[in-house]
């Protein structure tokens, strides 16, 4: 039985965070003592900038002509497609933003950063706010610090603006920000039209997804540094945005992007804008277009200013792959109403796996005993050792067994019995609860859209929380205590999930309630999987390889039949049941959140 705590929805309260730790102003530090660089900025040897080896790749970074794109020029669209697939970064020329708008913005910003600290601090970021002047978000004392100061403003929708953070000096700065941002908005919209086209959709599909976009500006100021080889201006990260549009100085190189395993500097083209694909497009495109890791380095002689405009999704937008971009190479969980399978005595071809499928991945059953076992009672009491173990389990396995979870054995037994009772019913009776693909609830065979091979299993999927998603018509009435039992079990699972999210927040260096707050209205769904016996188990798979589109999944399995296998070190490791324990796995959403939080530390939005 597979109990999924499904996708998390973020609310506006995701905008406030547990506070950032105070961090020195870098520009002041450098000003008062140019030769001194505190330990906390000095990177480990292996993180050092290595630029020289990849300079030759710099001139291969695609350059896209926006005016051609916007006229639907075929060649240019092809170029854009290639850029998104292979680089995730490109420079945009002929974008129609007047040179004086670009230069005016740069000029005003550098005047702002030249102001005395006391002046700039009038706009100081509060420790729990995302907007204002200050330093990147810092969550742990051990974290290496970025050699930069920033000014962050939310620009659109205008009702999100906090004008108290908009500098009054230099006088014309506000207006420059307004004009520039409005131009960037247009460039972003034109790019989204072209992106819609190359993703095989109507021109305005991506734009139409949004009632409104969120646009935020982050101005980065990188002071000079006496030992540029040992510090970073911005730590490696990917952007959580849909798109990021960056304006950089025309004559100082700092931005580097990861390509073919190397850090490639993005050499400025005068008046061009640098655009990169953010995590959202990576997800929408089901991984076809890439959100590339990048960082900024500093130098001895010249301070550098860059302007990153993030085009972000609003809460009303779903962030999941577009159906038509899901294929068997990149399977993702999407449900579809389909055939009913009756005859279990022979295996229809569609269930048979090719030799290749089955041999994919070596048998690593020797590793089974090494799957981490985590004591949830210890986690609840914030036992440091156990938290470390959790962190390691998430990093190295993404899976662990949870013991001491507090769910009474009797509840576990009852829910197993109830499920077994349901699946034993005659097919006619179970059919009364048939899967509705729109609802994603009911009894049947949910499976991936374009996966031609079928899973040797039937499922019952019920949405449990928020309770207005519950549709009782899908809830079996036989066995008689089914509803009651599922209700009790789900309440218990929710408590376990809360403990886990609390501990996961701690291991990510946030306050305990951070992830829970993100899951304002935590959604929870139950999927009961029934794997009939199979005469030729070597030729079928109960459930195809997949990762869960959830935050975390909590699985209760039979105590005496092994079936679940997880991918580890390039092989498949069977998860042998431990009596009364649960199996937990980290789903895609937490993985995205980890990325997001990593990024939050230096951008802080979304
Ligand atoms: C950012 C960023 C790079 C740069 O602000 O997210 O990646 O060149 N900046 O300043
Ligand atoms: Ni970035």
From TrEMBL:
<feature type="domain" description="Fe2OG dioxygenase">
    <location>
        <begin position="522"/>
        <end position="606"/>
    </location>
</feature>
<keyword id="KW-0479">Metal-binding</keyword>
<dbReference type="InterPro" id="IPR050295">
    <property type="entry name" value="Plant_2OG-oxidoreductases"/>
</dbReference>
<dbReference type="InterPro" id="IPR026992">
    <property type="entry name" value="DIOX_N"/>
</dbReference>
<keyword id="KW-0408">Iron</keyword>
<dbReference type="Pfam" id="PF14226">
    <property type="entry name" value="DIOX_N"/>
</dbReference>
<dbReference type="InterPro" id="IPR044861">
    <property type="entry name" value="IPNS-like_FE2OG_OXY"/>
</dbReference>
<comment type="similarity">
    <text>Belongs to the iron/ascorbate-dependent oxidoreductase family.</text>
</comment>
<dbReference type="Pfam" id="PF03171">
    <property type="entry name" value="2OG-FeII_Oxy"/>
</dbReference>
<dbReference type="InterPro" id="IPR005123">
    <property type="entry name" value="Oxoglu/Fe-dep_dioxygenase_dom"/>
</dbReference>
<dbReference type="InterPro" id="IPR027443">
    <property type="entry name" value="IPNS-like_sf"/>
</dbReference>
<feature type="domain" description="Fe2OG dioxygenase">
    <location>
        <begin position="212"/>
        <end position="313"/>
    </location>
</feature>
<protein>
    <recommendedName>
        <fullName>Fe2OG dioxygenase domain-containing protein</fullName>
    </recommendedName>
</protein>
